[in-house]
Design a protein that fits this description.
With about 180 residues, this protein is an alpha+beta fold. Helix content is about 45%, strand content about 15%. The strands form two sheets. Strands 1, 2, 3 and 6 form a four-stranded antiparallel sheet that branches. A two-stranded antiparallel ribbon has the order 4-5.
Length: about 180
């Protein structure tokens, strides 16, 4: 006598679908949360680049203003929990890449169509999203590399001349 009973087969299908559904939901949550943090990191670099772009007494003073703004935002009550919980990591204040012009630009890394018009001064930070480094059942790992996904957040603004540069310009102009 043959037993053609398929009782309980739908339970296996349901459990399989449930695990896949939870895995896909985890990936969707991780992606949306990461994209939100990328926008926050872009705000931090833009705000720091604005502090760097504002005129000051020297180029070093402009860089210091940018680093101070960056540190204040990264350690603020609103953003500090994002970068201290282990899910995301952003460049430390002392490792922040600031290019102020006068041969110190991002021109070699980011080319434009017109060589004469490109001004590549600003701030670049690296964001690492450990949250996207997932290992899900039945789906597998989301990354072959350890250490999370990394991206560079760049804000390019034209820096205003500082006090020293203005004085040098007017001295050359008066001498001409």
């Amino acid at each position: 006598m043959k037993n053609n009973s398929q009782a309980g087969l739908i339970t296996v299908d349901f459990l399989f679908a449930l695990v896949i559904g939870f895995g896909m939901s985890a990936i969707l949550f991780a992606m949306t949360f990461t994209l939100t943090v990328v926008e926050i990191a872009q705000y931090i670099t833009f705000s720091s680049a604005r502090a760097h772009a504002a005129a000051n007494s020297t180029v070093d003073a402009q860089k210091t203003a940018a680093k101070n703004k960056y540190a204040a935002l990264v350690s603020s009550a609103a953003f500090a929990p994002l970068f201290s919980g282990g899910w995301f990591e952003i460049t430390k204040k002392d490792e922040l890449d600031i290019r102020s012009g006068n041969g110190e630009t991002f021109k070699n890394e980011y080319r434009s169509g017109e060589e004469n018009r490109a001004v590549f001064t600003g701030i670049r930070a690296q964001l690492t999203a450990h949250m996207l480094d997932l290992k899900l059942p039945m789906i597998g790992k989301t990354s072959d590399e350890d250490g999370g996904f990394k991206t560079k957040i760049l804000t390019i603004l034209i820096r205003e001349p500082n006090e020293d540069e203005c004085q040098q310009f007017f001295k050359k102009r008066a001498a001409a």
